[in-house]
Design goal:
Layout: E1 2-11, H1 15-33, E2 36-43, H2 47-53, H3 61-65, E3 70-75, H4 83-97, E4 102-108, E5 126-132, E6 142-145, E7 153-156, H5 162-179, E8 183-187, H6 195-207, E9 215-219, H7 220-229, E10 236-239, H8 241-254, E11 262-266, E12 274-278, H9 295-308, H10 311-327, H11 341-354
Parallel strand pairs: 1-2, 1-3, 3-12, 5-10, 8-9, 8-10
Antiparallel strand pairs: 4-5, 4-11, 6-7, 11-12
This protein binds nicotinamide-adenine-dinucleotide.
């Protein structure tokens, strides 16, 4: 029987609460499948760890994670530690060091999920974001000059390499070809006259190899308007790190809320472990109260199963999330229910058992 070794970084706030349910669900899937199992190793890296040690992870943290098949992450962030530290020293560090250059974020309105948009049919919101995840404005390049002086200057560079742009754009074209969907390129070439003109040029160059894929190009400001006014026009989307970060939160808002939004950080070549996470933060306002919705984490578990080669289980988990949303009996307060985080996890497990 194959064993998948999974590193669990539960993190802060509601992170440990939702991840406990994700782990529970993955264990049940493996037990039902019978051909593979999971071995989970928990790492305490979090804001609490930082307050104790002065570091978000040990110096050899990346080496400790390297042998794992995947990383399952909850959320990091605490009012006691600057967000730039929690995010850069753990999350972004893992994404960079493991070259997880694809951030795959589904924005799909499931049956029964709430949607704040008027006059939009459920089927009209069904898109997949392919967000560049290794460079752009998040590459960490810049300078802080004349600190605390009147002539203080900060520079945050946008890093766009040919290799970095080509590989994410090619990934998106391949996905669109495989799924027989349209591909929309979202950029901002009218204002960002180096980075985004270059990005658009590479989109066109790579596109010559995919004459079968129908493409569209939009400026990011227009794209955010269309996501609200006419989401149906989007199927596969490719965009930069910063734009993708912002647009996928908008995507979460139109597709059921943060409690249903998942994301996968992929190293497609599998040279390094990929990382699966709900996209929400540590939600300090509801932490420790059993109110956190674990369904985003279950969705990210389904992305992990897809990536490990078990798409049939990935699909089953999405179908179960949809059942829960339609039945409206076992849901957390953000979705109008009264169930606790672990009751929702238990219900997912119960429904998995029913499929036996
Ligand atoms: N990937 C990550 O680890 C990540 C992502 C975003 C923010 N953060 C960090 O999290 C902390 C809080 O950030 P924030 O408040 O901007 O964003 P957040 O996502 O934690 O919370 C925003 C709102 O959504 C609600 N919410 C989020 N997830 C929920 C869930 N699963 N179930 C029910 N309600 C949920 C929260 O209660 C809150 O009202 C900050 O320190 C931030 O830096 C971490």
């Amino acid at each position: 029987m194959h064993t998948y070794n999974i590193a669990v970084i539960a993190g802060d706030g509601i992170g440990p609460e939702v991840l406990a349910e994700g782990v529970k669900v993955l264990k049940e899937v493996a037990a039902l499948d019978g051909t593979f199992q999971f071995s989970f190793t928990h790492f305490p890296w979090s804001s609490a760890y930082y307050l104790k040690t002065g570091k978000m992870m040990p110096d050899d943290g990346i080496d400790q994670l390297r042998p794992f098949d995947a990383i399952f992450l909850g959320a990091v962030g605490s009012p006691d530690v600057p967000n730039s530290v929690t995010s850069r020293d753990l999350l972004i560090r893992i994404r960079h060091d493991f070259d997880q250059y694809i951030n795959l974020r589904p924005v799909k309105l499931l049956k029964g999920a709430p949607c704040p948009l008027a006059d939009v049919k459920r089927e009209d919101i069904d898109m997949t974001f392919v967000r560049e995840n290794s460079e752009g404005e998040y590459a960490g390049s810049g300078a802080w000059l004349y600190k605390d002086q009147p002539n203080e200057v900060v520079i945050q560079n946008g890093v766009f390499s040919r290799k970095g742009c080509e590989r994410v754009i090619r990934y998106a074209y391949e996905l669109a070809r495989k799924e027989h969907k349209t591909l929309t390129n979202i950029s901002k070439g009218n204002a960002l006259n180096y980075s985004m003109v270059f990005w658009d040029q590479i989109f066109a160059e790579v596109g010559k190899e995919y004459p079968d894929v129908k493409t569209y190009s939009l400026l990011v400001d227009a794209a955010s308007m269309f996501m609200v006014k006419n989401p149906k026009r989007f199927q596969i989307i490719v965009t930069s790190n910063l734009f993708g970060d912002i647009l996928t939160d908008l995507g979460a808002a139109i597709a059921g809320g943060m409690g249903l939004a998942a994301g996968a950080n992929l190293n497609p070549e599998k040279k390094f472990p990929s990382m699966f996470e709900p996209i929400h933060g540590s939600a300090p306002d509801i932490a420790g109260q059993g109110k956190a919705n674990p369904l985003a984490t279950v969705w990210s578990a389904s992305q992990m199963l897809d990536f490990l080669g078990y798409p049939q289980w990935g699909k089953k988990l999405i179908a179960i999330i949809e059942d829960l949303l339609v039945e409206k009996k076992v849901l957390t307060p953000d979705l109008g229910g009264t169930a606790t985080t672990s009751q929702v996890g238990d219900e997912v497990v119960r429904k998995l058992e029913e499929t036996k």
